[in-house]
Design goal:
heterodimer; A: 112 residues; alpha/beta; Transcription Regulator spoIIAA; five-stranded mixed β-sheet; 4 helices; 33% strand; B: 142 residues; alpha+beta; Heat Shock Protein 90; five-stranded antiparallel β-sheet; globular
Chain lengths: 112, 142
C-alpha cells in the first residue's frame, strides 16, 4: 500500500493506492494520519480511488482513523470510493458515519 | 468447461503472510469455476476473512498451530472449510456490528461480511478443539 500526501491550503489530501488489509496496509494509514495530527493538521481527505482491495481490517482502520481524527478536533472525509468499498461501507451502515465525496473540489469546499 | 468434483486441501502455519497466498489460490479457483467478477471478489474476501480470524483470533498467531483450508469444487458450487486449532468461540455471542453502539468499533465486521456474501455459512466446534467455518457459494444457474 502506498500513500502520497498533497497539501491544498490547510487541507491534506492523502492519495491512497494498493491494498488496505490487515498488517502493512492498515499500519500505513494509521501512521500517516498520526503524523499529520502531530503536525497539527486537522483537515484530512482520504482519496481511495486507487485502492484496489480492502478487507474488514481496512474498513476498521478507516473507522479508527475517523475516531482518532475527530477526537483530535479534526475532520476526515472520504473521496472517490470504489464500488466495492462503497458496498462494504453501506452494508455496515458506515455511510451514515463518513462524509463521502465523488469530487475533490466538493470535498475541499466542504471544509469551508 | 466441465467441472469435475475436486478437493484442494491446504494447511498453513498461523502467519499473516500466508493470507495473500490463500487469496491468490482462491482467486485461481473461482476463475477456474467461471464465477463472475463480483462473486469471485466477495468469495476471495470471505475466505480471507475466515483465514484471518483463524490465524489471528483462533490460533493467536502461534506459528506451531495450523489452519486447514479445504476447497471442494463441484459443478454447481464451491464449498470452503477453514479449521483452526484455537479455543473456539460462540458465534451467537458476537456483537452485532450494525448496532449503533458498535458502529465506531474498529473490529467485528469480518463474520458479518462472510455471512453477507456467501450463500451458506456454518460455524462448528471441533471435537479435537478449534473451530471450523464452513461456507458455500453456489454458481448461479443460467
Amino acid at each position: 500500500m502506498k500513500i502520497e500526501a498533497r497539501t491544498i491550503g490547510d487541507v491534506t489530501v492523502l492519495d491512497c493506492s494498493g491494498k488496505i488489509t490487515l498488517g502493512e496496509g492498515t499500519m500505513t494509514v494509521r501512521n500517516t494520519v498520526r503524523d499529520i495530527l502531530k503536525a497539527n493538521g486537522k483537515k484530512i481527505i482520504l482519496n481511495l480511488a486507487d485502492v484496489n482491495y480492502i478487507d474488514s481490517s481496512g474498513i476498521g482502520e478507516l473507522v479508527s482513523t475517523y475516531t482518532t481524527v475527530t477526537s483530535n478536533s479534526g475532520q476526515l472525509k472520504l473521496l472517490n470510493l470504489t464500488k466495492k468499498i462503497q458496498e462494504l461501507l453501506a452494508i455496515t451502515k458506515l455511510l451514515t458515519v463518513f462524509q463521502v465525496f465523488e469530487n475533490e473540489q466538493a470535498a475541499l469546499a466542504s471544509f469551508r | 468447461m466441465k467441472i469435475i468434483a475436486n478437493e484442494i486441501d491446504v494447511i498453513i502455519s498461523s502467519a499473516l503472510d500466508n493470507l495473500d497466498l490463500i487469496q491468490t489460490l482462491t482467486d485461481c479457483i473461482t476463475s477456474f469455476m467461471c464465477f463472475d467478477e463480483d462473486s469471485a471478489h466477495w468469495i476471495g474476501m470471505s475466505v480471507r476473512e475466515a483465514v484471518t480470524n483463524a490465524v489471528q483470533h483462533g490460533n493467536k498467531l502461534d506459528l506451531s498451530k495450523k489452519v486447514d483450508i479445504c476447497f471442494e469444487v463441484s459443478p454447481d458450487q464451491l464449498s470452503i472449510s477453514v479449521k483452526d486449532q484455537g479455543n473456539g468461540f460462540r458465534v451467537e455471542e458476537l456483537p452485532n456490528p450494525l448496532d449503533r453502539a458498535n458502529l465506531l468499533k474498529p473490529s467485528g465486521r469480518g463474520i458479518f461480511y462472510i455471512r453477507t456474501f456467501m450463500d451458506e455459512v456454518e460455524f462448528r466446534s471441533l471435537s479435537q478443539g478449534g473451530m471450523e467455518v464452513h461456507m458455500v457459494k453456489r454458481i448461479p444457474s443460467n
